[in-house]
Amino acid sequence: MRIRYFAWIKDITNKEDEIIDINHPKTIQELKKYLEHLYPGLKKHFLQDVLRFAVNQEYVSENLNLKPIDEVAIFPPVSGG
Amino acid sequence: MRIRYFAWIKDITNKEDEIIDINHPKTIQELKKYLEHLYPGLKKHFLQDVLRFAVNQEYVSENLNLKPIDEVAIFPPVSGG
Amino acid sequence: MIKIQKKNFNLEEEIEKIKNKHSDIGALTSFVGYVRDLNNNKDVKYLNLEVYEEMAFKELSKIENNTIKKWGLIDTLIIHRYGKLIVNEKIVLVCCFSQHRKNSFEACEFIMDYLKKDAPFWKNEFYYKDNEWLENSSYRF
Amino acid sequence: MIKIQKKNFNLEEEIEKIKNKHSDIGALTSFVGYVRDLNNNKDVKYLNLEVYEEMAFKELSKIENNTIKKWGLIDTLIIHRYGKLIVNEKIVLVCCFSQHRKNSFEACEFIMDYLKKDAPFWKNEFYYKDNEWLENSSYRF
To answer: How many A/D residue pairs have CB atoms within 8 Å?
Structure first.
């Protein structure tokens, strides 16, 4: 599973993307737990519920089942236009 | 007093403008009476109340007093834009 | 700024001329009106657009000033053409420059509504066999 | 049509490319967003605009299709730039082509609202001393 980070999320993860391929998380909720552990700086933002998640370039709810081939993106509120 | 005609009003008056300088009408109401006489084809349009009047390039009500130096314009509903 | 002219205009050039005066502009809403190929279910060849020029300037200035004041715009541009205009040609451009988008949208629609209602222009639309003077519907007022 | 690009664009050229395909267009409402010199009460030097490009295409296509359907538009054009954008540069262009003006105004504002809310672009605004990631306010939703 490929995870992509955008905007200031990258400043916390220190990377733009990464591959998680063993025991991949089955839901966004599980993914958040996993990433909180890897990047403690993300925790407060998850708690504030400000971040948005996309799976295969579509916004998703947290209950969606994740598959190993999915591309998951995590990013802050957008500011285009 | 200069009277100007626009759009299909010109097809009725057969002119774009004219000067009325003796015993000039004192109000739009009097001007309409005067022009009805000169151009019988205008009468039904005056009766239908579809035409618009401007004095010195401003829309006016019929009660305004007209002065000899005024420019009066008569035209149908506009269709710009 | 108001321009009443026969000749065509270039959107990029006209807009940049105004935009270059102000660095605080964040939003521009603009409207362009074109000559359509079909109107009243008839094939249009061209328009002959008549204007009462002195009055059009006065009316558009009034509309422009009211709009700038009402929506706190930074600048506006209105270009209206007259004369013979063939299908696909631009007729009118209205631009509302502001800091934020909501104002510019509302202001641009407001100018177009009043321009359509009050600005002394008349379209004589020529079809293949005949012609017709148009009237703007005023259902929005 | 959707374009996501680094380079600047010419309004006249981009609009004419679409307009030339359709002779039934009577109305075009367009919106242009610019980099302002002042934001959050700070002097802006430039933006660094980041995009999640594959998703931006999908999101903008969805918004475009919904809008065309909802307002019966003839065509649309969305151009969004990314990368380093200096004060006064264009950021975004949204064009809604239709037969009549009311539809094109509403549709253009609708696209901008959804673009601002959902399209995955992020502005990193650089001032003279520091920088800040912006967030679009969502008060309209």
So the answer is: 73
